[in-house]
Amino acid sequence: ASYVLGQENFTAIEEALDQDSLSSSDQIALDTTNDRLFIRTDERLLIFDVRNAGSANSTLCGESTTGLANGMNASCVLGQENFTDELLATDADGFREAANVNNGVVYDSVDERLFVGDGGNNRVVVFDLSGTISNGMDASFVLGQANLTANVVPAAYTLSANQFTSSVTNSLPRSLSYDTTNKRLIIGDANGARYLVFDLSSGITNGMDASFVLGHSSLTSPANAAFIVGENQSNFFS
Asked: pLDDT tens digit string along 209-226?
């Protein structure tokens, strides 16, 4: 590797809650237009300037950087008001981490939207990054909940078109992918052993229904996803 993020050097193993550390690392996404790296880590998401080392000075969220450097500071934090908070929240600017959940993240390079899995709140939140980015900024939309302050836990293993499947307490919206050509967001709904496809060609609304499902015959079947067994041409094994 050429550079390391989250540690001062390649041999350090330190865990901290600050601007240049990663307490854990879930999934990542890359903005190839602006060379920004998004890293989901516990109850926050960090944004790093990953332009070539020695690039012209640039300031984002008040942090001045010149591109990649070992142990560099993140420029911005989402999900928390600052780089040292680790608060659990169910609102427009917070996350609620679920234990042992790999929260997905994907970036829409055309409309400059960042989609972030928030398993502890049984939802995916959408940040509009087309304008000014600021630490702790509000998400613009939410999928899986009716609004940005709701944390409704659906009945265990009951499938629906507008919620992610719960296993008693938490949903697992992860493995996010985005089709920029057709404006389709694909989200892995792990507890439901399915992938949900949201058609965003006409925009996003809070709590909107998915348009398609992969892994089942419909968006509301089978009645109990906990008992999906065996592999075939159309199902995912749960």
From this structure: 999 999 888 999 876 655
